[in-house]
Design brief:
- The complex is a heterodimer of chains A (361) and B (370).
- Chain A has 361 residues and is of the alpha+beta class.
- Chain A is elongated.
- Chain A contains nine helices and 21 strands.
- In chain A, the strands form five sheets. Chain A has a six-stranded mixed beta sheet with strand order 7-8-9-3-10-11, with helices on both faces.
- Chain B folds into two domains: 232 residues, 3-Layer(aba) Sandwich (Rossmann fold), CATH 3.40.50.300; 120 residues, Nucleic acid-binding proteins (OB fold (Dihydrolipoamide Acetyltransferase, E2P), Beta Barrel).
- In chain B, the strands form four sheets. Chain B has a six-stranded mixed beta sheet, sandwiched between helices. In chain B, strands 13-12-11-14-20 form a five-stranded antiparallel beta sheet.
- The chains are: A alpha+beta (361), B alpha+beta (370).
- Chains A and B meet through α5, α6, α7 and β17 of A and α5, α6, α7 and β16 of B.
Chain lengths: 361, 370
C-alpha cells in the first residue's frame, strides 16, 4: 500500500486509517498488531477490496487494484466471526468457494480433500459446524479459504476465542501450514505474543497509523518510539518520566526516586540526546535483583508482590508510588515487603523524548 | 490455619456425563486457591455448585464446618465476583458499595462509616462519587472487590474476572489482586482456563481434567513435580515435550533411547523407581522446553542431534521448534537465548538436563517419582 488513507463516516463500524505505507513480500507471513479499533480490520478490507481508499494506492503483484472488484483480486479472507455455513457439513463448507466459481466436481473434490488432509479435518467433513469444537471450527474456516488457492490470504484474529492451550497449538499449525504452502499471508491480531511468534515482519498500529514495520527482533530491540516499546514484549516494558542532566561532563537520567549514570550509552546518541524531558524504558527481563548495593546507582526498592510462572517469576517492586516490574528466573523466595537492590542493565535502557515519544537511545 | 471450605466426594452428573467426579479438596482459611484445567474439565461445574447455582448429585460442600449443599445461593456466605463485575451503572461508586448495607436496612451513619473505611482500604476515596461507566479497569476491579468485602463473606469466589482485559492490564491487575488478597487475609477461590494466571495468583492450585482432580499443590510443586502427563502437559507456558522412548540395559547402565537411536540418555539413577513401576520397556520421556539446552555443560549427557524446523524470535528469548532425526512428524520445542539463531534445517546438538526430565509410564500416564 502506498499512502493509503480511508475515512469512514461517524458511527461506522470500521476505523479510519491514515497514510499507510507498507509492502508484503511473496511468501511472507506479515502481521499487524494493535489494540481494538486501531484499524486492523480496515486494512484487511482495503486489501480485499471490500472498501476503497480515499487516497493512495493498493497494488497486488505490482499492479494497481483500487478499482478491481474483490471477487477479481484472488485474495481470500478469513473473518473473525468465521461465518461457517451452519446448514452445510464440513465438505460443503470447504467446497463453497469453488462451487461459487463453478469449478468442476473432480477439481473441487481434489482441493477439498487436499485441504482437509493438510489440516487434519477429514473426520469433520460429514458433520455440521454445530458439532465442532472451537479448534475444529477454526480449522474448517481455514480450510475453506485455503481451497481457493488465492494469491494471498487475509486472517482477521484467526485465533481469537480459543482457550490458552489451544491457541498455542493452533499457532504452530498455522505457521507450519504457511511454511509448507509457501502462501503469502497477512494476519491481524491484538496479541503481541502471537504476532511475534508468527510474523516474518510486523506492523505496529495505533488509531489507524503505522508506528513501525520490522522483524520481531527489530521491534523488540530497536523500537522507534515508546508506543512500539510498550506494545511489544510481555510483561510490558517499564516506562518512567525522567530528566536528562549534564553536569561536569557526566550525563545522568534523573527520576524522582532514582538517578542513573548513562555516559557509556551517550556515545551512540546523536545531538538530540541533549533533550531535557525524556521517558526511560527498561524491560522487566533486563533488571537485575541484588541483595546488596554494589554500584552507586543501584536502586533500593521493596517487593510489592511476586507471581511464580513456572520457569520465571514476575516480581513487582515499589519505590514511592512507582512500580518497577521485573522478570527473573531466580529460584529465590520473594517475600512481600522485603527490600532489594535493583540494577537496570545499562546496555538495554531505552530513552524516548517525552513530547513526541520518539526514541533517542 | 484452620480449614475454611471442604469439598467431600463431590459428584455432579448430567445424564451420561460425569462432569465432576469425586472431588475432594480442603481449602485453608486465608488461602488463595485457583482451579484450572482444559475445557470440559469440570471447573465451571464445580464453581456453580459452590455458588449455589447447581446442586451436587452427591457429596458435600462444607463451609466453616456447616454443610451448605441445599442452601440457596443468596443465603450462602460466599461473595461472587464474576467477569462482568455486575456493578450497577445507574449508581455512583458510593451507592454501589452501600447497596448491600441499605438492603439490610443498616442505619445511615453506620453505612457511611463502613463505606468510607472500606473505600480507604481500597484506594477509592477519591472516586466515591464517580460514575462507574467511566472507571478504568483497576478501579473497577477494586470497586467490585470492595463491594463484596462489605458484605463480609466467608469466602470469595472469582470466575475469570480478568478475561476481558488486554494482556498488559491483566498482568498488572493480577499483581494487585494477589496483593489485595494477602492484605485482606480472606479465602479466595479463583477459576480460570489460563494456567499462567492460576500459577501466578494461587497459594495452591487445583488441576482438574475430565471431572477428576489431578493434583492439588503449590505452583512450585506442580511445576517441578507434576504427578501425571495431564498436569505435566498442561502447566508451564509452553507445553512439555513428550518423547516416546525405549529402555535398554547396556553394560550395567540403564539407557533411554528411541527407535532411531537419535538420543542416548543414561538414567541409571532412576533404576529403582523404574523397576518398581513394572512399565516394561517403553517409557514416555517428558522434558520442558526451558530445560533443553544447546549449550553443553558437565552435568549434561551426550548431545542429541536435532533438526531445526522453525525459529521464533520473541525478543527476550527464542523458541526453536525441532524434530529428532528420522522423526520429522513430531515437532518439539526448546527455549534458547536471543543470540542463538540457527537456520531452518540446520542440525543442532541439544542437551537434556538429567535432573529435569520426567519419566512417564505410558500405560497409566503417571510420572515415576524418585
Amino acid at each position: 500500500m502506498e499512502s493509503v488513507t480511508k475515512q469512514f463516516g461517524a458511527g461506522k463500524q470500521y476505523c479510519n486509517v491514515y497514510d499507510l505505507d507498507f509492502e508484503v513480500s511473496d511468501g511472507e507471513l506479515f502481521c499487524f498488531v494493535g489494540p481494538t479499533n486501531s484499524g486492523k480490520t480496515t486494512i484487511l478490507r482495503l486489501i480485499a477490496g471490500l472498501d476503497k481508499p480515499d487516497r493512495g494506492q493498493v497494488s497486488i503483484d505490482g499492479m494497481r487494484v483500487n478499482e478491481v472488484h474483490p471477487s477479481r483480486r484472488q485474495i481470500a479472507m478469513l473473518f473473525e466471526e468465521l461465518a461457517l455455513y451452519p446448514n452445510k457439513n464440513g465438505y460443503g463448507n470447504l467446497a463453497s468457494p469453488l462451487k461459487v466459481k463453478k469449478a468442476p466436481k473432480q477439481e473441487i473434490k481434489k482441493r477439498v480433500m487436499g485441504a482437509a488432509k493438510l489440516l487434519g479435518i477429514e473426520h469433520l467433513l460429514d458433520r455440521n459446524p454445530e458439532t465442532y469444537s472451537g479448534g475444529e471450527r477454526q480449522r474448517v474456516a481455514l480450510g475453506r479459504i485455503l481451497v481457493s488457492q488465492a494469491k494471498a490470504y487475509l486472517l482477521d484474529e484467526p485465533l481469537g476465542g480459543l482457550d490458552a492451550r489451544l491457541r498455542i497449538s493452533m499457532r504452530s499449525e498455522l505457521k507450519r501450514l504457511q511454511r509448507e504452502l509457501g502462501q503469502t499471508m497477512v494476519m491481524v491480531s491484538h496479541d503481541q505474543e502471537e504476532v511475534m511468534s508468527l510474523g516474518n515482519r510486523i506492523g505496529v498500529l495505533e488509531k489507524g497509523k503505522i508506528h513501525q514495520v520490522g522483524t520481531p527482533a527489530e521491534l523488540y530491540n530497536n523500537p522507534v518510539d515508546s508506543y512500539v516499546a510498550k506494545t511489544i514484549g510481555k510483561p510490558a516494558i517499564n516506562l518512567y518520566e525522567c530528566n536528562l542532566e549534564q553536569k561536569n561532563g557526566k550525563v545522568s537520567v534523573i527520576h524522582d526516586h532514582f538517578t542513573l549514570d548513562i555516559d557509556d550509552r551517550l556515545q551512540e546518541a546523536p545531538e538530540q540526546s541533549r533533550e531535557q524531558e525524556v521517558i526511560l524504558g527498561i524491560r522487566p527481563e533486563h533488571i537485575e535483583i541484588g541483595e546488596a548495593k554494589k554500584k552507586d546507582d543501584d536502586i533500593p526498592a521493596t517487593i510489592f508482590i511476586s507471581e511464580p510462572l513456572g520457569a520465571k517469576t514476575i516480581v513487582d517492586f515499589k519505590i514511592g508510588q512507582e512500580t518497577i516490574r521485573t522478570l527473573t528466573s531466580s529460584d529465590s523466595q520473594f517475600q512481600i515487603k522485603e527490600s532489594k537492590w535493583l540494577r537496570f542493565r545499562k546496555d538495554k535502557i531505552h530513552l524516548f523524548k517525552k513530547k513526541t515519544g520518539k526514541a533517542v537511545l | 490455619m484452620g480449614i475454611k471450605l471442604q469439598l467431600n466426594n463431590l459428584i455432579k452428573v448430567f445424564g451420561n456425563l460425569v462432569a465432576v467426579n469425586e472431588l475432594c479438596i480442603d481449602i485453608l482459611d486465608g488461602e488463595f486457591v485457583s482451579i484450572v484445567g482444559p475445557s470440559g474439565c469440570g471447573k465451571t461445574t464445580t464453581l456453580n455448585m459452590l455458588a449455589g447455582v447447581l446442586e451436587p448429585t452427591s457429596g458435600s460442600i462444607i463451609l466453616d464446618g456447616i454443610e451448605i449443599n441445599s442452601l440457596p445461593a443468596r443465603k450462602r456466605d460466599i461473595g461472587l465476583i464474576f467477569q462482568d463485575y455486575a456493578i450497577f451503572d445507574k449508581m455512583d461508586v458510593y451507592e454501589n458499595l452501600a447497596f448491600s448495607l441499605r438492603t439490610k436496612k443498616t442505619p445511615k451513619e453506620q453505612i457511611d462509616r463502613t463505606v468510607r473505611s472500606v473505600a480507604e482500604t481500597f484506594n477509592l476515596t477519591g472516586i466515591l462519587h464517580n460514575d462507574p461507566s467511566f472507571l478504568n479497569p483497576g478501579d473497577l476491579q477494586r470497586v467490585a472487590i470492595a463491594r463484596t468485602v462489605i458484605t463480609e463473606p466467608s469466602v470469595f469466589l472469582l470466575d475469570e474476572p480478568l478475561d476481558n482485559l488486554d494482556a498488559n492490564m491483566r498482568v498488572t491487575m493480577r499483581g494487585e489482586l494477589k496483593r489485595l488478597q494477602k492484605d485482606l487475609g480472606k479465602t479466595m477461590i479463583y477459576v480460570t482456563h489460563d494456567q499462567e494466571e492460576a500459577m501466578s495468583l494461587a497459594d495452591r492450585v487445583v488441576v482438574m481434567n475430565n471431572g477428576k482432580l489431578q493434583q492439588f499443590d503449590t505452583p512450585k510443586e506442580i511445576y517441578d513435580h507434576p504427578v501425571n502427563k495431564v498436569v505435566a502437559g498442561f502447566i508451564g507456558n509452553l507445553p512439555m515435550n513428550f518423547i516416546d522412548s525405549q529402555l535398554r540395559d547396556e553394560s550395567g547402565k540403564l539407557i533411554l533411547t528411541d527407535s532411531s537411536q537419535s538420543f542416548h540418555l543414561d538414567i541409571s539413577s532412576h533404576r529403582k523407581v523404574i523397576e518398581e513401576s513394572h512399565c516394561g520397556e517403553t517409557l514416555c520421556l517428558g522434558v520442558r522446553p526451558e530445560h533443553i539446552s544447546a549449550e553443553p555443560s558437565k552435568e549434561h549427557d551426550s548431545p542429541f542431534k536435532a533438526v531445526v524446523y522453525n525459529l521464533e524470535i520473541l525478543g527476550a528469548e527464542n523458541v526453536i521448534e525441532f524434530y529428532m532425526k528420522e522423526k520429522p512428524d513430531i515437532i518439539h520445542r526448546m527455549i534458547a537465548p536471543p543470540e542463538f539463531v540457527p537456520k531452518v534445517n540446520d542440525t543442532i546438538s541439544i542437551h537434556f538436563h538429567p535432573d529435569k526430565i520426567y519419566l512417564i509410564d505410558p500405560g497409566t500416564g503417571n510420572v515415576l517419582r524418585q
